[in-house]
Structure formats: C-alpha cells, structure tokens
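As a warm-up, study this chain.
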Amino acid sequence: MNPTDDHGRNSLSEGGWGVTGAARLAVGLVQGLLLAWLIHSASGGDTAANGQATRLWPATHPALYGPLILVAAYLPPVLLAGIGRLRLVTLLAWGVGAGLLLAFLGWSDIARQSVTESHNPPFLDFPLLPFAAAALFIGHHLILPADRERRLIAAFPTYFDTAWLAGVQLALSLGFTLAFWLLLNLGAALFGLIGIRQLNDLLQETWFIIPLLSLAFALAVQLTDVRPGLIRGVRTVALMLLSWLLLVMTVLVGGFLAALPFTGMEGLWKTGSATALVLAAAGALIILINTAYQDGLPDNRPPAVLRAAVRVAAVLITPLIGIAVWGLSLRIGQYGLTPDRIIAAACVLVGLVYAAGYGWAALSPFWRGGDWMKPLERTNVFAAVLTVLVIVCLFTPIADPARLSVASQVARLNAGQVAPDRFDYRFLRFDSGRAGEAALARLARSDNAEIARRARDMQAETDRYSAPDTTLPAVTPVFEVHPAGSAAPQGLIAPVTIGDPRARCVKAGDCVVTQVDLNGDGVAEALIATAHSVEMFQKTDRGWASRGAFRTSYCGDGARNAVDPRQMMREGRIAARDPLWPDLNIGDVPARLDRWPYCDGRP
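Now compare it with the structure written out below.
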C-alpha cells in the first residue's frame, strides 16, 4: 500500500520517497509527452483549404492511433499505482499485460467500425473508455493483494484495504490536478489584466499543458502515498458517511418493491428504462453494503441498525435483479438484441452473482450459523474476476455487441417477425460497424424485392443524420378546423413522419387549423395552432411545406401569462400584423430580425 509497508516493499521503494517519487514523476512526464504528441498529430500540420488542420502520423491511421492513445491514457496510472507497491517483476509483468490488453481492446474497437462511423480522433467508441478503466482498476486490485500476500487469492481485508484506499487516492489526485489547472488559468488571467499574456498563450499549447498536468497527477499520487495514514482517515470518514446512506436506500428500495403489487408492472415497462433503473438501484445497494461491511473484521463492524440494514439490503438485490431480467427478456423477445441490451445483459449476469452471493450471506446464518455476512467476501472476489472477463468479452470479437445485435435483427427480419418497412436499416448502415455493413450488403441481394430495395436505398445514404428513419410509422394528423364546419385545406391532411409539425396532431383537440392569406399574394396559408405555437404552412408544387412557427412567451409565473393558441384561434383572435422592423437585404441575401416576444405585451 505505501512504500514503507513491509508487505509492499520492493526494489523501487528501497530508496524511500526519492526513488519512488522519481520513478512516478518520470512515468508522468513520459505520459504527458506521449499524449501531447498524439494530440498534436491529430490537429497539427499544414492548414487545408477548408481551414482545418491536416493530421499527422499516427493520427492518419486510426487502427494505430486508437490503441496508442488508449495505452497512453490508461497504462501510466496503472504503473503509478504499482510503483512502490508491487514487486518489480510483478510490476513489469502486469504493465506489459495491461498494455497489451489495452492495445488489443483499442484495435478491436477500431476494427469493428465501418468507415462511416468514426471520423475524428481518438476514433474509439465512448463505451470502451469507462469500461476499460473499470477493468484496469478491478484487475489491478486483484493482482496487488495477491502479490503482497504471495498467493493466488488474498485475504478479503487486503482486497478491501487496497481497493478503497486506491479509490480515495485516485479521487484526491484527480482533484489536485483539476485544482492545479484552475490555478494556472487564474494566474494567467491575473497576468492578462496587466497586459502579460504569455502564460495564457502557453496554457493553450498542447506541448506545454498536457505534460504539466500529467506531472501534476503523478506528483499527487506520490504525495498521497507518502502519508497513507491521512488517506485512511479520509477513507474512514467517507465510508462512515456512505454507510448511513444505506438506511435511506434500503427504505426507498423496500418501499418501491412493496408498492409494485398495488401499482402493477405496466407503468414500469412504459418508462422504457426500467432495466437500467433497477440495475442502478442494485448497484447502489451493493456499493453501500460494502461501505458498511468494510473488511469484515470484528473491530470494524457497524452498529446493530446498520447490520440489520445490510441484511435487508442484501436480500432486496434479488428482486431488483429479477425485475431487470424480466424487463430485459421482454424487450429482447419483442424487439431483439441491440448493443445497449447486450451490455445490460452483461450487467445482469454480474448482478445475478451478487444477488445469489449476498442473499446467501444474509440468510444462511439463520440455519447454518457462521460469521455475519461472511460469504459476501467470496462473492466480491468472484464477481470482480467475472466483471473483468465480461468487459474483455464485450469489447473484443468474443461477444461484440454490434455483431450479436446485427445477427439478431437480421434473423428477425428473415423470420418475418419484423415487416420490411419497419426494419431499422439505418442501424445496419451507420451504427453497427462492419458487421452491419456486411449484413446490409447481403440484404441488398435478398430474394425479397422490398427488402433488397430498401437495403440498396440505405446503402446509397452517406449522411446518418439525413437518412430517413424507416422505423418510424407515418402519422395522419387530426385537425379541428376553424371556422367550425369548414373544410381543412386540401392536401394538408396526409400521412407524415415524426419531425413534421403536423405529427403532433394525433387526436381531436391537439391542433386547430385555419387559412389566412398572410403575404397578400392571393393564396391562403395554413395556420396550425398547437398548445404553445402557431405553425405556418405554405402550399407548394410538392404539397404543403412548413415555413416556421409563431411562438408565445413564457414570462413571470408562466401559467397565467402564456396563452393557448388553440383557444385564441377558436375565438378568432389570431390576425396578421405589420412587422415593427422591416426585413433587410445583406448583399443579395434577405435577413429577418429574430425576436422573442416581450413579456410586457410590446411587439
């Protein structure tokens, strides 16, 4: 844990603060220089004709750049945490292994992407970043206790001590680095007041600020490491405060579960995020249970009320995970696999281990005896190993969520579970990497003419944001026409997709429509009053086209000052008025003053 600990002493810690501190500062400096070089390569070079800087090697090769920046960002913190704590041979072996794993994860992430998915450095999908960090943190604190005790599975108090101490140290080191950066910017602002702007200019340079912040982080790790007693004191206070929050969370989750038989599950499923919410609640319970249990030693046991809360909370995890399994199975049965559902399924798998282990720990003493919650310790170690394995599988070809999702969705289409006009071809084209593109190419050769046509149309799309969303059903708007008894403008009532203002008019009373010639050209425009605006449509050769909206203001107490445009239209109180300010021609381009209505009634 600290350089002077008998169990953690190694060749790097023999020299005390000097050798260990120098090694850590060297790692921080190398990390900063490497990151600065990588960032510069992504934005350096000559300026292109479009005003953007051209990239330099290795940013011109995503398959190399992605793994490099992942290793440069994540491997040095692993080394900082291992210097002075791991034996040198273990540190070298773990450093090489972690670096290779990071490089493989980065390469796998780049390799699965299509050329249309990621255009900008670091070229990595966001989910990889937090999951890779979690895998490294867990893996490091499985190796460190084992190395300290010279055995494959260490005693649970050692796992607890090293992991929670490192968590506090990491939080403090990040806070120190952030404070250092803020102080630098404050100093630059002060010098700027007297006309000295060189420091501010330096802070904008990647080659200066990135190595400086990396050194600051390495220094913070060393400073927090030389006084481990202080860090343990901070950890003790944090654990004590968090453990009492277990009472609050237990009451909330218990109340939620008790209410379900009376409210039913329908409302829960309608949220669309039931699985994520209950998994988050289960995760919170697991963390808070561990803040109360701590290392499990008799001297550190919490008060009786917290021990009771730990037992109850441990049992409550099971129904939460059960709800997550139920909700996820319903969604998968109805709509098939998606990347999000596969990641959720991985979380559920880990959650099942916690639910079984914690439930057994809470209930088994009633018929078997034994120490309070003792099986929790084995559960934590097993779940930690499983979590690392699951993360590695998810972000490598072993269980690539995009590949599995593509297989599931295409199988549903081929089996007739999804109609060709409701299938999400856009997901294959833009959001599922090479596996999706390959599947789309196969669908373009399908014997089903409609599937083949739609797949070819999606293959021709080059912009994911302009591509039509074929999964959204058409909506036929419903209008109340003013004056009463008159007919709606011809052609205005036609099937439209989400995004057209008329798609909000789904039932009687949602929208009121009238015709007014606003520009005096002899052709009436259509005004559609909704709850908060009046949408204007103009008749064109291609049908009715939206030309914008007139909106009322929300001022003061909102409810009294805002008016309902639909009621105003029913009362005939919507009329054209002359603009306060005319439009301008800026060169040959017309420009209109964009104003929000005043709150005092002025135009």
